[in-house]
Structures are given as structure tokens and as C-alpha cells.
Design a protein that fits this description.
Blueprint: H1 5-28, E1 44-49, E2 51-52, E3 55-56, E4 59-65, E5 71-78, E6 82-87, E7 95-99, E8 108-112, H2 124-135, H3 141-151
Antiparallel strand pairs: 1-6, 2-3, 4-5, 4-7, 7-8
């Protein structure tokens, strides 16, 4: 029994159109994922240390910008690498802590995406993580995890807080 090539082509085209149409409908019916907006309910004191590739940074102004880019707080380092800054109640996350060390052109930064942690170091590593997360689409929890994973050279068996040997709040600069 011979099958006509025209019939085979027609059946193939109809099947292909059905598949493409079904795939298109699947995309339009997906629910939109909403993320919970986090903010500080009361004044929150954040603290940490500032270091760059050369070592401790002991001079400069740390600016804290909210999710809109507005400076909501600031503090100055005065001959110490340790800082404390008070974040106003109602400040929406993510927030970015940044400092431009004296004599350098690039600012160091750390991104805060959780209200639960109060200790955040600012370093070249936290800056790389922040830049990578921004390149991935923004400072979301999943982007920060992917950015840290691709930036920090940690063994696969050492990436969870149970596998980390030391203080888990300092593993990635404290942001997690």
C-alpha cells in the first residue's frame, strides 16, 4: 500500500500546529508568582566590617540605599573597619550598603535581602555577589543564591549551613 507524500506532509503540518498552539496556551495560563515585600518593622541596627583587596577599610562614608535608590541612612568609619548603622522602620528590602574607600574609584557594596540578620560585612566578595545578582535580574533571594554560588569558590559539599565549617552568618558576607 502506497502512502501519498502530500498526505504525510499535511498530517505533519497539522500535528506541528497543534503542538505549537498547545505550547503557547500553556505559557499564557501560568499563574504570576508574587514575592512578599519585606521591610523593617522597627529601627534595625546593622553592623559589620569593611575590607577591600588591600585589607581593612578604616575611612569613608557608608550609604544605605533602599529599593528605590533613596539614601535612608549613613554612617562614617573613623579609624576602624567596624561599622554600625541604624535602618529606619518601614525601610523596604532589598537595601544596598555601599562605601567608596579613599583613593579608589569603585565602591564596595553588600545587599541585604533579609530582616532576620543584623551582621553584614562589606568586601570585594560581597561586591562581586551584588554585581552578579544585579546582572541576573535583581536582588532577589534566588538571584543572590545563584550569584554567591557562581562567585564564591566553595566546595559542593560545603555549600549548606550544615556543611560550612564556621559561622554560617559570615559565609557569604552575612547576606543569607
Amino acid at each position: 500500500m502506497k502512502i501519498n507524500n502530500k498526505i504525510i506532509k499535511s498530517v505533519f503540518v497539522v500535528a506541528l500546529i497543534a503542538i505549537v498552539t498547545a505550547c503557547g496556551q500553556d505559557k499564557t495560563n501560568k499563574p504570576v508568582v508574587k514575592t512578599k515585600v519585606r521591610s523593617y518593622q522597627e529601627i534595625k541596627a546593622l553592623s559589620g566590617e569593611v575590607t577591600d583587596a588591600k585589607g581593612p577599610v578604616v575611612e569613608g562614608v557608608i550609604k544605605v540605599k533602599d529599593s528605590t535608590g533613596k539614601v535612608v541612612a549613613r554612617t562614617e568609619l573613623e579609624n576602624t573597619r567596624h561599622y554600625t548603622v541604624n535602618i529606619p522602620a518601614g525601610t523596604t528590602l532589598p537595601i544596598v550598603l555601599s562605601i567608596k574607600p579613599k583613593g579608589q574609584t569603585e565602591a564596595l557594596q553588600a545587599v541585604i535581602i533579609s530582616t532576620a540578620i543584623a551582621k553584614y560585612d562589606i568586601s570585594t566578595m560581597t561586591t562581586k555577589i551584588a554585581e552578579r545578582a544585579k546582572a541576573l535580574g535583581g536582588y532577589t533571594h534566588s538571584n543572590m543564591i545563584m550569584a554567591a554560588d557562581s562567585t564564591v569558590g566553595v566546595l559542593e559539599s560545603n555549600k549548606t549551613s550544615t556543611g560550612f565549617r564556621g559561622d554560617p552568618t559570615r559565609q557569604y558576607g552575612g547576606w543569607h
